[in-house]
């Protein structure tokens, strides 16, 4: 896919993986529609990208809200009259033993990691189907390929995201719209430091970087339209949690 001049939507763009995805797409001369809940950080990113010559539209909001999905697609239509790429990078999933996992924590995790991608994917499809082409990249996790203690909600959400996305692939197989699932291992983002996990300072240097994930996503988008890569797992060269 030629990203030069394309229109790409990135959710969770204010930090971590989403921010690096936006920068990578800008480096490929894509035009961007960025959404996130953190208004200040979203504005800072947009300012820096515009300074580099990228055409950027921002929409602040929670991707788990149908109104945000509608607003993002409307903003893309009004500014660019097309949507070529959607990357669902927003996600939330703090570790917690099951007995300490509250209903609110469960709902927040499922909403950001699964409901958000559902709403955004469904919102962009009419435009992509009308054009007969488009790419959707779901940023899942290696947690969707196995199980992790104290991550029941996150594993459930990411397993659900993979199942949703694989079913989408079958439904859209003959439409020209491609759906890719990207499953990275642990990524060194600010979120790990915010957890207060005493291991975080040690393991951060052994994790994937947000740039690694962005590079993998660009590789998926670079594949020609007749090549369908349904799922890509990106791991570490060593166990970051090993002593």
Walk me through what this model shows.
A 7-stranded parallel sheet has the order 3-2-1-4-5-6-7, sandwiched between helices. The chain is 46% helix and 16% strand. It is globular, with a radius of gyration of 17 Å. The chain has helices at residues 16-27, 39-51, 66-80, 103-131, 152-171, 190-194, 200-203, 210-222; strands spanning 7-11, 31-36, 56-60, 85-88, 134-139, 177-184, 231-234. The protein has one domain (7-186, 214-231): NAD(P)-binding Rossmann-like Domain (Rossmann fold, 3-Layer(aba) Sandwich), CATH 3.40.50.720.
Brief write-up:
The chain has 243 residues and is of the alpha/beta class.
Summarize the topology.
Blueprint: E1 7-11, H1 16-27, E2 31-36, H2 39-51, E3 56-60, H3 66-80, E4 85-88, H4 103-131, E5 134-139, H5 152-171, E6 177-184, H6 190-194, H7 200-203, H8 210-222, E7 231-234
Parallel strand pairs: 1-2, 1-4, 2-3, 4-5, 5-6, 6-7
């Amino acid at each position: 896919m030629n990203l030069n001049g394309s229109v790409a939507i990135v959710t969770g763009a204010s930090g971590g993986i989403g921010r690096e995805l936006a920068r990578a797409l800008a480096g490929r001369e894509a035009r961007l529609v960025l959404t996130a809940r953190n208004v200040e950080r979203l504005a800072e990113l947009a300012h820096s990208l515009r300074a580099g010559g990228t055409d950027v539209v921002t929409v602040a909001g929670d991707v788990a809200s149908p109104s945000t999905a509608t607003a993002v697609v409307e903003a893309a239509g009004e500014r660019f009259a097309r949507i070529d790429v959607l990357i669902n990078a927003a996600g939330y999933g703090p570790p917690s033993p099951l007995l300490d996992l509250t209903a609110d924590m469960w709902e927040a995790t499922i909403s950001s990691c699964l409901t958000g991608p559902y709403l955004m994917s469904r919102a962009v499809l009419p435009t992509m189907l009308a054009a007969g082409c488009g790419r959707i990249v779901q940023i899942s996790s290696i947690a969707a390929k196995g199980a992790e203690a104290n991550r029941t909600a996150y594993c459930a959400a990411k397993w659900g995201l993979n199942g949703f996305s694989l079913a989408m692939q079958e439904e859209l197989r003959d439409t020209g719209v491609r759906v890719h699932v990207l499953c990275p291992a642990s990524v060194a983002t600010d979120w790990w430091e915010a957890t207060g996990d005493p291991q975080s300072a040690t393991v951060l240097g052994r994790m994937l970087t947000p740039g690694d994930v962005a590079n993998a996503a660009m590789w998926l988008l670079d594949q020609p339209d007749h090549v369908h890569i349904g799922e890509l797992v990106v791991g570490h060269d060593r166990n970051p949690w090993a002593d």
